[in-house]
Amino acid sequence: MIRHLSETRLRRLVRHVLMEKRFSDFSVAKGEYVDLTPADFSHDRSDPMGLDKEIFDLVQTAYAKAGGNLKVSSPADLPGGYTYNVAADLDDDPEPDVYRGGKIRGGRLKLGISGHDGSGLAKDEYMQKTVEQLMGGAFAEMSKGIAHMMITRHRVPAITNHEEVEAYLGKPVVWKGPHPDPKLAARYGPDYEGWYERDIGGKSEVKILLTGG
User: Fold this and answer.
1) Cα distance between residue 208 and residue 185, in whole Å
2) Residue 40: other Cβ atoms inside 10 A
3) What is the pLDDT of residue 203?
4) Collapsing DSSP states into helix, strand and coil, what is residue 150?
5) Which of 10, 11, 42, 93 is deepest in the core (most CB within 10 A)?
6) CA–CA dist 78, 52 (Å, integer)
7) Backbone phi and psi for residue 189, each to the nearest 5 degrees, phi listed first
8) How close are the terminal C-alpha atoms of the chain, in Å?
9) How far is the C-alpha of 97 from the C-alpha of 124, rounded, in Å?
10) Is the peptide bond before 94 cis (omega within 30 degrees of 0)?
11) Are the beta carbons of 144 and 67 closer than 8 angstroms?
């Protein structure tokens, strides 16, 4: 016997199925980046491995040494204020391996949050993608290890003018100029005397703004 569903129940069922999105549902080629929309992050508690959880796991791995991301501490925080969200699957399993989030500021992409699965393949892709985007006109605030690699390995240029940095960010910063650590300041040289300090998530961070565009 065929059981007929009421229109209301049918709509709820369809909505539930559509919201239970996982990365594998996009059916794209390996290495191809997928544009993710806020609607893709359903936060459906009945699905323990929905897209929001898949992406959050990548963020957790990428920020593990820093104790987690200051703005995203659970799957429910995604995508947050990030209007640019992309991810790609690189290996044999169907789950995403690398993720990048950002937002448009002044007509340019500001790179923000990132994620990877911890594999060499994903970390290499994350680094290469970041360099390509920065040299292509995107900009990003960076600090610590990632800033060090962008500066010493890839020579991504920095904005070294206080007023210009604040114009990019749309907010004031405490200007430092050379890196506060004299050894790093000497290693980076005058082309990277653009360090500043600002509060992020209630914590003071020393950063530099990098862009090749």
Assistant:
1) 12
2) 22
3) 83
4) helix
5) 42
6) 7
7) 80, 180
8) 65
9) 11
10) no
11) no
Residues 162-183 pLDDT 10s: 999 999 999 999 999 999 999 9
pLDDT surpasses 50 at 58: yes
CATH class as words, domain 21-133: alpha beta
CA distances, 10 to each of 3, 4, 7, 13, 75 (Å)? 12, 9, 5, 5, 28
What is the share, in percent, of the chain residues with pLDDT greater than 90? 75
Residue 154's SS3 state is: coil
- 59 backbone dihedrals φ, ψ, rounded to 5°: -65, -45
Report d(CA 73, CA 59) in Å as an integer. 9
Calpha distance 182→36 (Å, rounded): 42
What confidence score (pLDDT) does residue 44 get? 65
Q: Are 207 and 112 in contact (CB under 8 A)?
A: no
**Cα–chain center distance at 205:** 17
- Tell which wins on pLDDT, 139 or 8: 139
Q: What is the DSSP letter of 46?
A: T
CB 83 within 8 A of CB 139: no
Instruction: Name the DSSP class of 195.
Output: E
